[in-house]
Each structure stands twice: as structure tokens, then as C-alpha cells.
């Protein structure tokens, strides 16, 4: 029997909050149940298992992160959009470390839920739209998206792990990295002859 007031959304939010507090890998169904004040079995009327819960957290986080980026970049173009986009990404990763991790860890997301989710689709549209402002087209768009994602993810992951040991402030390095990315995007090298799509 499903406990009154308990929903898949409430279970997901509780799991996401726990992920931010203790880390995604420490979230268990038992811990989520304790947080909600219910028995473990009560959760299974709303989510199938831990893998399903992690997929739901990933979709929630993708939607939140995409909304933050969309709000930050509205009406901006080129370098202004790039900086706002990057700063919103980094801020989300800092404020919601467990949720952010969920967006980066492959999980088996229910295809029906994934089909209804707007966050991941919107994220792609926002990113491609921002990069089109630099005059990029395929296959360069895909290459540039991968460059930005790996740069932003690598930076925030190293920063979260205290991986920057030099005296120079990570903030200054972040700003210079964004300057460099802007210059690169403005001067994107042409694809070599016969480059496959």
C-alpha cells in the first residue's frame, strides 16, 4: 500500500537533497526512507529501485541546471553568453554537488521518463544556440560542445576535489580559461579535408 502524500517527486527530491549532503554514491533507499519518515518498502510504490531513483535525480538536476543556464544567458551572445553559461554551470555544480554528479554518471533512466524530460533536450538546444553565435556549424558544433563540456566538467570536478594546489586563485584561472575559450571559438580551425561527420 502506498503511503498518503508520498509521491515519486517527493522521493526524488529527498534523494537529491541527500545526494547534495552526503554524496550520490552514499544515497540508499533506506536513507531516503529514513529522511521521509517511512519504511523502505513504502518507496517502492513510487520508484522501482535505487537505479531508478538515481535516474530520476539526474533528470531533476538536468532540468534545474538547464533552467539556471537559460536564465543566466537570456538575451546574451558570444562571450557574454559563454561566460554566463559557464558561471551558471559552475555555480550549480558547487551548490548541488550530488545532483550535479547524477547528471554526469550514466544510469538506466526509464525510457518513458526520459522521453518526457525537457532538461537534457533543452540543454542541447541552449548549448548549440550559444555556439551558433560564434558562426559554428556541424561537425564543428559537436566538437565545440564536447570541448566545453569536458572543460567545465573537468574544472568543477578538480575544484570540488581541491585539485588546484598552486597559489593562484582558481577564480582567476577560471576567468582566464573562459577568455581562452572565447578566443578559440572566435578562431575555430577549419576541419581538415575529408573530416568525417
TrEMBL record:
The domain of life for this entry's organism is: Bacteria
Q: Which residues form the HTH tetR-type domain?
A: 5-65
PROSITE patterns associated with the record: HTH_TETR_2
UniProt DNA-binding region: 28-47
Q: Name one GO molecular function term.
A: DNA binding
Q: Does the keyword Iron-sulfur apply?
A: no
Q: Does the keyword DNA-binding apply?
A: yes
Q: Which UniProt keywords apply?
A: DNA-binding, Transcription, Transcription regulation
Protein name per the record: HTH tetR-type domain-containing protein
What organism is recorded for this protein? Answer: Actinomadura macrotermitis
Amino acid at each position: 500500500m502506498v503511503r498518503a502524500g508520498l509521491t515519486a517527486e517527493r522521493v526524488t527530491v529527498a534523494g537529491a537533497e541527500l545526494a547534495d549532503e552526503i554524496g550520490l554514491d552514499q544515497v540508499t533507499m533506506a536513507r531516503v526512507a529514513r529522511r521521509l519518515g517511512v519504511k523502505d518498502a513504502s518507496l517502492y510504490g513510487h520508484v522501482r529501485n535505487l537505479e531508478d531513483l538515481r535516474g530520476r535525480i539526474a533528470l531533476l538536476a538536468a532540468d534545474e541546471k538547464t533552467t539556471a543556464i537559460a536564465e543566466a544567458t537570456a538575451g546574451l551572445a558570444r562571450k557574454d553568453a559563454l561566460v554566463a553559461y559557464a558561471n551558471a554551470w559552475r555555480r550549480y555544480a558547487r551548490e548541488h554537488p550530488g545532483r550535479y554528479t547524477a547528471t554526469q554518471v550514466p544510469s538506466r533512466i526509464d525510457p518513458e521518463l526520459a522521453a518526457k524530460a525537457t532538461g537534457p533536450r533543452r540543454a542541447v538546444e541552449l548549448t548549440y544556440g550559444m555556439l551558433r553565435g560564434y558562426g559554428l556549424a556541424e561537425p564543428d558544433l559537436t566538437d565545440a560542445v564536447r570541448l566545453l563540456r569536458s572543460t567545465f566538467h573537468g574544472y568543477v570536478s578538480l575544484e570540488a576535489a581541491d585539485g588546484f594546489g598552486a597559489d593562484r586563485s582558481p577564480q582567476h584561472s577560471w576567468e582566464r580559461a573562459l577568455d581562452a575559450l572565447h578566443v578559440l571559438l572566435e578562431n575555430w580551425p577549419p576541419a581538415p579535408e575529408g573530416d568525417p561527420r
